[in-house]
Amino acid sequence: MSAGILYLHGFCSSPASAKSRLLAATLQARGQGDRFFCPALSPVPRAAIAQAQAILTGHAGPLTVVGSSLGGYYATWLAEQHDLRAVLINPAVVAPVSLNQYIGIQTNLHTGETFDFTAEHIAQLRALEVAKVHPERYLLLVETGDEVLDYRNAVARYAGCRQRVLEGGDHSFTHFADLLPEIIEYCGL
């Protein structure tokens, strides 16, 4: 039973994101490439959660969920439902509210694939809201310069958990490479 990482990318992103590729390459170089899972998440929240749960139930060892932006919102729900640890990177704390402005046709940043993001998808996100988090499960990584999400919402939401609040940066989380050793250690690898 070996520990592993389930990485959940953000809205309109994919496994081709810089953070996903860097984490995958780092684990590959350490001989742990088989412990990294990063599905191309469906833009439909209910389907994205089902994809993640299929990986969780199919892996023999413990997995830590690492979620970026919308992936952090999903990671929170999965951590609470399945008693898991999670690393949250600039998480979308209030995803149903922050993503409401994106209703309509969207384009994946990496694949170019388009999809219709609808009010039903917002309702599905609302269904994944977690009333209370268990702070001991989380490592929160935020940058104060995030131009998409207000980092203070995450700091307040995950009060009491291990937090790294870094000055500057942006929504892509510019300190990711610097914090890889800490992330990997937190994930038990």
What layout of secondary structure does this protein have?
Blueprint: E1 4-8, H1 18-29, E2 36-37, H2 45-58, E3 63-68, H3 70-82, E4 86-89, H4 95-98, E5 104-107, E6 114-117, H5 119-126, E7 138-143, H6 151-157, E8 162-166, H7 176-186
Parallel strand pairs: 1-2, 1-3, 3-4, 4-7, 7-8
Antiparallel strand pairs: 5-6
Describe, in plain words, how this protein is organized in 3D:
The protein has 189 residues and is of the alpha/beta class. The protein has a single domain, classed as Rossmann fold, CATH 3.40.50. The chain is 37% helix and 19% strand.
Write out key terms for the chains shown:
189 residues, two-stranded antiparallel ribbon, 6-stranded parallel beta sheet, Rossmann fold
State mean pLDDT (0 to 100 scale): 96
What oligomeric state is this?
A: single chain
Which range does the strand content fall in?
15-25%
Q: Alpha-carbon distance between the termini?
A: 12 Å
Architecture, CATH level 2?
Answer: 3-Layer(aba) Sandwich
Helix/strand order: EHEHEHEHEEHEHEH
Q: Tell me, what's the shape? A: globular
Please indicate the count of domains: 1
CATH level 4 superfamily: Alpha/Beta hydrolase fold, catalytic domain
Q: Which structural class do you get from the secondary structure elements? A: alpha/beta
> Count the helices. How many?
7
- Share of helical residues: 25-40%
Radius of gyration: 15 Å
Q: Report the uncertain regions.
A: none
According to DSSP, the number of beta strands is 8
Largest sheet geometry: 6 strands, parallel
- Read across the widest sheet, the strand sequence of neighbours is 2-1-3-4-7-8
The CATH topology annotation reads as Rossmann fold
